[in-house]
Amino acid sequence: xxxxxxxxxxxxxxxxxxxxxxxxxxxxxxxxxxxxxxxxxxxxxxxxxxxxxxxxxxxxxxxxxxxxxxxxxxxxxxxxxxxxxxxxxxxxxxxxxxxxxxxxxxxxxxxxxxxxxxxxxxxxxxxxxxxxxxxxxxxxxxxxxxxxxxxxxxxxxxxxxxxxxxxxxxxxxxxxxxxxxxxxxxxxxxxxxxxxxxxxxxxxxxxxxxxxxxxxxxxxxxxxxxxxxxxxxxxxxxxxxxxxxxxxxxxxxxxxxxxxxxxxxxxxxxxxxxxxxxxxxxxxxxxxxxxxxxxxxxxxxxxxxxxxxxxxxxxxxxxxxxxxxxxxxxxxxxxxxxxxxxxxxxxxxxxxxxxxxxxxxxxxxxxxxxxxxxxxxxxxxxxxxxxxxxxxxxxxxxxxxxxxxxxxxxxxxxxxxxxxxxxxxxxxxxxxxxxxxxxxxxxxxxxxxxxxxxxxxxxxxxxxxxxxxxxxxxxxxxxxxxxxxxxxxxxxxxxxxxxxxxxxxxxxxxxxxxxxxxxxxxxxxxxxxxxxxxxxxx
Length: 538
Known about the structure:
By secondary structure, the protein is α/β, with parallel strands linked by helices. About 35% of the residues lie in helices and about 15% in strands. Strands 1, 2, 3, 4, 5, 6, 7, 8, 9, 10, 11, 12 and 13 form a 13-stranded mixed beta sheet that branches. Strand 12 and strand 13 form a beta hairpin. Helix 12 runs parallel beside helix 14 and helix 15 packs across helix 17. The radius of gyration is 23 Å and the shape is globular. The N terminus and C terminus are likely disordered.
C-alpha cells in the first residue's frame, strides 16, 4: 500500500527545516504542507546493562542531526538487524538505537498547536512506527502536531524479570512523553495540550497511563481505541516469564537473560505462544489470547487496574474518549484456516464467559451460529466490555468521558473489525484500495472518505478543545457516537451483550492455582466460622 508520505513525495519541496530540541538540533524535511522529522532519539539504546532497565534520557549532541529516516525497530519477530544476535548490543549497523520518535507538524514556527501522541498496538509483541498505516501527514495537515514512538515490546518490554522494573514498554512511552514536554514547543506544539491516543495494546497502555503516578501531568487528554482488557497479577506474569526462560534453560532474571540474545528470547516467546492453549487450566483466560504479555499490576509502577483507578478518581482531570469497533474479533475468525473448532469454542466459554455464559449467549443471540457466538464472546471479553466498563469507571470517578462505536465497514466478510478505526483516523486506507478489495460492498469506495473525515475531525476537535462535539457518556443514558455512513448519537448499541456482562468486574488476571487456593481458603474459613470440621477431617 502506498502511504500518504509516499503520495506527498512527488510534490515535496527540496528544502529542509531545522528545529532545536532539548538534546540538540534536528533537521527534517517538508513534504507538501507538513514538516516531518523521523528517528529522533528520546532515550539511550536499551542494550547491555540498560537492556531490561528503565529508559535513560538520551544524551545531547553537537551540530545538527539529520532526522530524515525512521529509526530501527525494537527487537521483535522478523527483525533482521545485527542487534538481534548481539549479546553486548553494540552493532555496526546502528540497529540498537531503537528508542526513537517521529514528529509531523504543519508549522514548526507556530505556537500553541494541539499535540497528539500516537501509541501503536501489536499484541505487546511487535510493531514499528514506519508502518505506512501510521503515516500522520494527513492528520497533521488538519492543524495538529503528531508524535509517534517506538517502545520496547515482547519480553524486553513486558516480561516480568527478577531485578528489572515491570512494564518497561510503558516506561518507554513515559520517557517519550517527557521528551514531548521538553521539546514539542520547538515544533509548534503546546506541551500543556497533549492528547495520547492509541489502539489495541496501545489503547490498553493508555488506560494504564491514566492511573500511573509517573505519568501524572504528561498529558491532558486520552483516546483509547479497542483496548484489550488483559492486565496481569505478578504471579501470573512470573509464571509466564519463567516458562519462556525455561525454554532457554535459564531463569527469568536480569543476570540470566542479559546472556541471551534478543533473537533467542524472541524465538522462545514464539515457542510458548504455540503452546499457550495447553496452559489454560493454570494461566486462565490469557492462555486463549494471541500474546503472553500484558501490563503487570505490580503495585508500584502500575498500582492498580485502570477500572479500579478511574472509579476512584485517579484521572478525574483528564478528558477521555474511549470506544471500540462493532465486530472486533471477526478479524481473527475470518482469516484462512482460523474458524474455531468445537473444542476451542467450548474452551472459550469455559474460561472467558461470565457465569452461565454459554446459555446466556445462546438465549441472547438465538440466530447466531457457534462460530458467531465464539466471535461475540471474544469481542465482548477482550475488547468491547473492557472499553465500556472503562467509560463507566471514568464516569463514576467524576471524569469527563465520551464513548464511540465504529459500525461502518467496506468489507462484507470482516465487518467493522479490529484495526479499521485507526486506518480511518489516519486516512491511510485509500478509496482505490477499498474499491479493489474482493469483499468490498458496491458503494464503499465513495463512503470511506466521508466516514474517515468525520472520525478524524472528531479526534482532532477533542484533542484541541476537550469536547468531540456530542453528549458526554454517563452510566444511565450511555450516549454513544456511532460511526456509519452517517454518524449518529444513540444509546449503547450492544445492549444485549452489556446485560450479559453487567455484573462482571474486570480485574487483573490471576494464576489459576493461586485463585483456586484463595477459594479453598475462603471456604475453609467459612466452615471454621460456622464450627464445621475442616474438609477431610474424621
